[in-house]
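2024-03-11 09:14:02 INFO receiving multi-entity request
2024-03-11 09:14:02 INFO entity count = two
2024-03-11 09:14:03 INFO echoing inputs for audit
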Amino acid sequence: MTAMGDLKRRRIDELAARAGQVPEGEGGLSLTRSAFRRLRRNPVAITGAVIVVVFLLVAAFAPLLAPKDPLTQYLLSEIRPGSIPGSREGFPLGVDNLGRDLLSRLIVGSRQSLLIGVVSTLLGAAVGMALGVLAGAFGGWVDSVVMRFVDILLSLPSLLMAISISVLLGQNQWALMIAIAVTQVPVFARLLRGSMLAQRGSDYALAARALGIRRSRIVFGHVLPNSLSPVIVQATLSLATAIIEAAALSFLGLGDPDLARPEWGAMLSNAQAFLSIRPELAIYPALCIIVVALGFTLLGESLREALDPKFRR
Amino acid sequence: MSEPREHGATAASSLSKPAPTPVAPTLEEPAASGARGPLGDTLLEVRGLQKHFPLTQGIVFKRTIGHVRAVDGVDLTLRRGETVGLVGESGCGKSTVSKLIVALERPTAGSILYKGKDVARMGGRALKEYRREVQIIFQDPYASLNPRMTVGDIVAEGWAVHDDVAPKKGRLKRTQELLDRVGLNPDYVNRYPHQFSGGQRQRIGIARALALQPEVIVCDEPVSALDVSVQAQVVNLLEDLQDEFGLSYLFIAHDLSVVRHISDRVAVMYLGSIVEEGTDEQVYASPSHPYTQALLSSVPLHEPHLRGQKDRILLQGDVPSPADPPSGCRFRTRCWKAQDVCATEAPALVDRGQGHPSACHFAEARMVVPVDAE
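2024-03-11 09:21:47 INFO inference complete, emitting structure
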């Protein structure tokens, strides 16, 4: 026994000596920090992040960046039936059917599109997560009731539901955001509930129960923090779908009625009458929508990879 | 690894004596070692323990279409300073027994008496005190530690509830002492679990259980997920801790040699109930239940010259479903001794002249594995 004790002590000393050589930063690398480190090394993540940041900056400084006023009908006099002026000096992308500068409208339009995407996703995620926590933490009949409600939401086609809600709430941008948020709620609720249920039965949650830890502390201290990764990923991916849905609703004429705020979806909708004359009017806003959605999707997918324990070295 | 151990006064089960005041093990003043000697009073007594999980059908209107009899009549006794091994194949209900004992599940029937008090009837303060005294170590060291907490927080977490165990001020020092005691560098308190190997993580799990100064630790397959070399280290650590703090272990495993090494008494489980029980000498050298004999005959021998002497018993068929166990004796569907009486009458776990309890109508001691140098 003493020989073994000596051995053990010597081993601890060795370990201690080696631990002294470990660089400072290695002391404790939390999961979040190591995930962020992996994210930084991933070129796909960088591409997505750059796209997202560029569009966010453009949206933030739109009034400064736009070369012309997006509402002034500069070239109205040159518009004839069957001909809209194309690219020229001062109007790099040409003008729309009312003679307004297309580039400026795209730049200012990014504000509205991104705002709708971000606000509706935040709203949807907040409500969805609240429902998910409720179902995941309590289980039993609470879980059944909440999940049946969520199933009802999920059973309606999301676009159809968004259309009915925005019709119900009247035509304004808040109605649009709420309509899109409602379609996001069930996704977040199901996701968080599922991952919480999985974590609730995990050994460390059982160990905490065996220690006598209170249920609220187990839910908020152990289960919830470990259930959030899929929700964060989903939020990033939802931003892309929210922007697309906002565009779709605007395209259908259910968007923001305020003409003073240009918006990509409304621009797209406007352009369909002139598709044969000037397809660029549709192509440019569509391209913006696609690229932003792609940026968020790339970021979300690489976030999923970074947060996935299977990819952890 | 293999030191001869004496097993004093283990066969007779005595529940009569009242418990003397327990000596709470602390890091500073280890309880008198030599707990290997005569064993103490009964700490934990499990009688007729059952746990049936309902099988339901339907979404809104659930109806029960049957029960999985995960645990169906288990009797166990654990005395102070003793290690009881519980062996059995996967799915026989070992882990459910461990969860029942640490009150993570409620038993369907039967009782778990701790120092004479029924655990199922405990509430509030009594349960809190029970949880402090009876701790658990889990099988999978990768799942049993919260990946988002530092090692220091994991070990110290129990003190958030049981704040009388460690004074608030010296908690960091206590945590470091505990890490040191389980063979980890005390400077690792700020590291996260994913920075450790499986064996090191299991040591963290042991430190977490030890932090509450328990009397009983339920070890739910604590070494099954580890490499063989690391298994030995962890088993030795558990033995050292037992000597130092006078702990009692319920050691659950499917590895017969590990159980034999650490246990004073062994219980063999099959399909939710105990089929044979005795000191490790009795169970390993003269197994009397056919299932125990088959189980032992499957253990690989490390001594080459002994290999020819072993008669390998091959069982036919699979383990029956615990949702629909066979009538009478659970083992009769795979037993070569089975007769008509086995289908009608469940054999009781009693001594039929072989020296220790065995749940077989035709129990007969038989040496399966040549015992040599152990």
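2024-03-11 09:21:48 INFO post-check: The domain at 35-59+95-311 of chain A is CATH 1.10.3720.10 (MetI-like fold).
2024-03-11 09:21:48 INFO post-check: The interface with chain B takes residues 1, 4, 8, 11-12, 15-16, 19, 27-31, 34, 144, 148, 202-204, 206-214, 217, 222, 225-226, 309, 312 of chain A (CB under 8 Å).
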